[in-house]
Amino acid sequence: MTTTAREAGGSIPKGGAYVPALTSGGMHDLDGSVGRSDDVAIGFVGGGSRDWAEKLMHALALTEEFAGSVRLYDLDYESAKTNAKLGRQIQAQDAAVGDWTYEAVETLAAALDGADFVVCSTQDPPAETFANDLDLPQEYGIYQTVGDTVGPGGTFRALRSIPQYREIAAAVHEHCPDAWVFNFTNPMTVCTRTLYEEYPDINAVGICHEVYHVQDWLTDLAEEHLGVEGATYDEVDVTVKGINHFTWIDEARLRGHDLLEAVDAELATRDPPEYEPGDPEIADQSVFATNHEITFDLYRRYGILPAAGDRHLAEFVPWYLDPVDEPEDIHRWGIKLTPSEYRVESWPEAEREREALLSGGDPIDVAAPNEEMVDLMTALLGGEAVKSNVNVPNRGQVSGLRDGAVVETNVLFTEDSVTPLTAGSLPDPVRSLVETHVTNQETLIDAGFTGDLDLAFRAFRNEPLVTLDPADAEALFADLVEAEREYLDDYDVAGADVLS
Predict the structure, then answer these.
(1) What is the pLDDT of residue 246?
(2) pLDDT at position 348, please?
(3) What is the residue extent of each domain of the chain?
(4) pLDDT of residue 5
(5) pLDDT at residue 367 above 60?
(6) Which of the residue ranges 97-106, 161-170, 320-329, 381-390 would you say has the lowest mean pLDDT?
(7) Active site residues
(8) 1-19+209-338+374-490 has which fold?
(9) CA dist list (Å): 288 to 74, 210, 278, 305, 308
(10) Which residues of 234-257 are buried (b: 16+ CB within 10 A; e: fewer)?
């Protein structure tokens, strides 16, 4: 959440201590004392993005605190050029008060040379990767609601991403060693952890919006059960702890109210889910919709509130997706599967929307996205301090989880500094659930840095969703390797025992 500098300085979250900060030697004050507030350079890796790039452009167009240039790099150079055109068109709107230039560049070095900030938002072609991540496991009876963080899909997305993020980290080290790196790419934990493993002195944070959505939902519960009206998500103060997409909240307050009282009041009105497989109410809803049924089931069982959408939570524990015999069976928890067709078709659909935006004669509606990336940049440049939940290596902010593993907690963003805030420990039963995934993620990092697919298979086999007999687990792993072989050049495929 966002707080003012005064508020952040006056209240330390549960645990009562700050954790040693990440600091950079190369940032600049907004008051002009170093003279770079009007010359901030942002390198965007994945600059052909159909999502985060446009969000950044809108946010920067409405930013008066600092100005500068954005250099867009993408393996799809034409898409980066299209985004540069879009950025200039957004900048030309009457509502744009910022002062930004946009340029597509053909090399990673050109994007990062001297950058103050690096934004990472990358995605391999879904038809060649994401579709396999979802469809092949289904042939073995494994269903995934998202497939980008854990489970078979998350494992293979991690294996593809680790070499890419090693390259990014090495380029940051060479071309902008003091830059602040904002990662938006999933699997969030593995990508961010890779950046630190490759370049230990990097200043990187992983940013996800799932907790923002939970904070927004808590304002609804506060209005319904506590009579608190007109609140916004950034007023909700929560203590967050866990790993990305499997975060937990044990304290939540709004205008002096304990929001867990509102959660308890809502829980008292709910019976266990009564949806049926194929329920039209669920079948017709968006794949991103949630009815908080899994959230409340976990809260009922463990006494601590999950802080992610149900479609993500379902993949971290085995019992919501196993047994599932047909895709419609997941409807009983008020959610639906994200089909591979959606992943594949979303790219050309986003391209059509972008082209329509560029070719249309109507003005572009410049609107602030419901994201905090520019607020965080402003704080790091010497503006108002911000407290927000992000992903950084554990230095004691979550007790009981291994040191160095990437965890998601609140941190305090101030001038040139990111300071994790102590969140305390998780209840033992929850910690054991989280630790399984931390172990898998750390194992994948080792596998990615050594090119060892046998080691990667151990993490794959250890995934709670992989409820197959040993022979089928090996066969599914081999099928995924074969389908995505061209993205696994950094691994010793020929020497892998699991593939023989």
Answers:
(1) 98
(2) 86
(3) 1-19+209-338+374-490
(4) 30
(5) yes
(6) 320-329
(7) 209
(8) LDH C-terminal domain-like (3.90.1820)
(9) 27, 11, 17, 20, 12
(10) bbbbbbbbbbbbbbbbbbbbbeeb
